[in-house]
Amino acid sequence: MSKRKKKTHMPVRLNILFFVVFLLFSALILRLGVVQIVQGEEYQRKLERTVNVIAKNEAPRGVMYDRFGHTVVENKLVLMVTYTNANVSNEEKLRVAERLNELIDVDTNKVTERDMKDYWIITNREEANNLVTRDEMRELENDAMDIYRLQLDRITEEHLNELTEKDIEIIAIKREFDRGFAHTPQRVTEVTYEEAARVLEHLSEMPGIDIIRDSERNYVYGSSFRQFFGGVGSIPRDSIDFYLSRGYYRSDQVGISQLEQQYEDVLRGDKEVLEHVLDGSGRLIDQPIETPGQRGKDLILTVDMELQQHVEKIVYDEIQRLKSMNGFLGVPAAYVVLIEPYTGEVLAMSGFRENSQTNNLSSYEIGNIYNAFEMGSAVKGATVLTGFQEGVAQPGTFFNDRTINIGGQRMSSVSAMGRINDLTALERSSNVYMAEIAMALGGTYNHAQGRWSGNIPIGYETMRYNFNQFGLGVKTGIDLPSEATGFNGGIPNTIGNLLYFSIGQFDTYTPLQMAQYTATIANGGYRISPRLVREIREPSTIEGELGNVVKQFAPNVLNRIDMKDDYIKRVQEGFRLVVHGSRGTARALSNNSYKVAGKTGTSQLFFVRDANNNVIRDRSGNAIRGNNQIFVGYAPFDNPEVAFAVIVPDLRIDNSGRMGRPANNISGSILDVYFSLKSERNGPRTSNNNHSNDIDNGE
Question: Where would I find the Penicillin-binding protein transpeptidase domain in this sequence (predicted)?
Fold first, then answer.
């Protein structure tokens, strides 16, 4: 019996499988063809309408510390309502604002008349349209903006009086909504925890509203040194392009003054980035992609806040004492700068000025860089060194101190001193000695005939050139956005004004310029930029510890004055005699262990002005005269570690002696505090060790 051959079914099954695959591929190809050919353009349009929107939330700013690591400016946690505009209508914004107003308290102080008019137009459309006739619309060619402006002009006070207190609150909220940009969170207002909880409960009713954790600046020492810390606020209009080009948003907060502005790039944190994917209608397609931010870098300042507070009390008390004696003719004020002569580091800057409305004293430390005064005899060190440098006098040169008459001007010292040299001229503050130098710079003086001949402009130019080397009349270079340089009186065609220039009664200088001038003499002739920041550090990750150092600032030498070392030492000796000489004008400070050297100044004022800049006159209509009192110096004189300038302006001339010398009083008190704190802290400051290595001779 023959075996039957088995018939295989594999080819049939394979054929069926291939046929099914063929059908599936055919369907896929058909579908792809429909999508690409029939619906391709539509899908392409949808794809093009899909956009990625990036929102950046600001990170906290860097913290500021004083030179010993005490926190002076920090960030305080606050809860902030934000609004993200999704290109909705004004009516929708008003609806959200109205609901939000029911949940929080609103500050209405920033609401303007224009804000109220805009609101009135939105909520009174028909009446607003009736403010413009059809003929006027045709004349304006139905231009919406021109019609809107005409409506604004025709809204009366009566219309605005229709607005209720609730309306004003809603306007205040919408005003903040309008300041934002599409898909970017805009800060609306700070809220309490209770208000935040209420808002969070009703978020679904207010599209675009959210609550975020934010921060605001907190000043640990209150008003102390507050003006130099500066402020944070919205980007100024005239700087908007500058900031936008650097990646800022229009709604960002930036440093707008002083240290906050100067170190904006450092203090600014790295923002938290939220990337949203939206479809063509502006709806979110997916959850945002989040990139965490980081707090800004920290600043270690040069200021000693404990010393600063002591100095402030000393200045405040002295002004109050003088006020009680009717000692001021102008606005009661005083200014103090303490600086390290070998590094330029500012240890303290204090100032107070009377508020003309309240008659109370207000902190005005910023006056040290913006207010300029005639500094009187305090500048005579620069005058003597100018004489040495220009060869019209030498150490030991004698001039006869007596009354001189020249060009219709009469000049004398407090008393006729006879033949004196440069040291005595500084010790006793001779005016005539300085006048002799000034006259010799521009020409020659015939003592017998009382006649001078020469080139007046050369005298002014020579004096100013040499004064500028000390920082007088030019910017000091302090690390702040701006500073004043004082008033340059020009070049009058009279020799008399040149003589007054030589004794500090012509051009004006700021207290900071005077401190830099004094420090330059103290350190042997190096003009160093004053500095308020000594280090930049990474934000700390450990509570109570400072972060790693990013940058340390070395002393910045602006120039070395032209004068020889022997000339500078000669003037240093003259400054020592001012305090320690038998007839020195500040010998009351000679009993202190810290050995002061310095120069007094009393600038006679031809007139005194009040708070409104009006000349103060007596009953007969004559302008009342007064003086500025100044004392600049450094200590110890044989190894200077602190230089200072004290200015008390617009004082009444006191013949009774009861007022004493206010600038000297303040100087003695602040030096007492400085050296007392140094002793308590067990030893000299590190920056005062090995002074010879502190100065970088490069520009």
Answer: 335-652
Which amino acid is present at 376?
Answer: G
pLDDT digits (tens, 9 = 90+) for 606-631: 555 665 666 666 556 666 678 999 99
- In whole angstroms, give the CA distance from residue 530 to residue 553: 11
Q: Where are the domains of the chain?
A: 84-217, 305-677
CATH topology of domain 84-217: Arc Repressor Mutant, subunit A (1.10.10)
* Helical residues (DSSP H) of 390-494, grouped into ranges: 422-428, 431-442, 456-469
The rounded distance, in Å, linking the Cα atoms of 691 and 562 is 21
Residue 650 and residue 602: Cα distance in Å, rounded?
11
Which of the following is catalytic: 215, 350, 363, 377? 377
Backbone phi, then psi, for 589, in 5-degree steps? -95, 5
Instruction: Convert the pLDDT of each residue in 145-169 to its tens digit.
Output: 888 888 888 888 888 888 899 999 9
The C-alpha atoms of residue 78 and residue 195 are separated, in whole angstroms, by 12
Contact 120, 163 (CB under 8 A): yes
Q: CATH second-level architecture of 305-677?
A: 3-Layer(aba) Sandwich (3.40)
Q: Which of 397, 406, 467, 466 is closest to 433 using CA atoms?
A: 397
CA distances from 54 to 247, 271, 294 (A): 12, 11, 17
Q: What is the pLDDT of residue 412?
A: 92
566: number of Cβ within 10 Å: 10
Q: How far apart are CA 349 and CA 339, in angstroms?
A: 9
Active site residue 89: no
Predicted pLDDT of residue 133: 84
Number of Cβ within 10 Å of residue 182's Cβ equals 11
First-to-last alpha carbon distance for the chain, in angstroms, is: 119
> Hey, is 56 helix, strand or coil?
strand
Single-letter amino acid code for the residue at 579: V
pLDDT mean over 678-690 = 61
DSSP label of 376: G
Tokens of 236: 């100024």
Can you tell me the distance from the alpha carbon of 63 to that of 71, in angstroms, rounded to the nearest whole number? 7
Same fold, 84-217 and 305-677: no
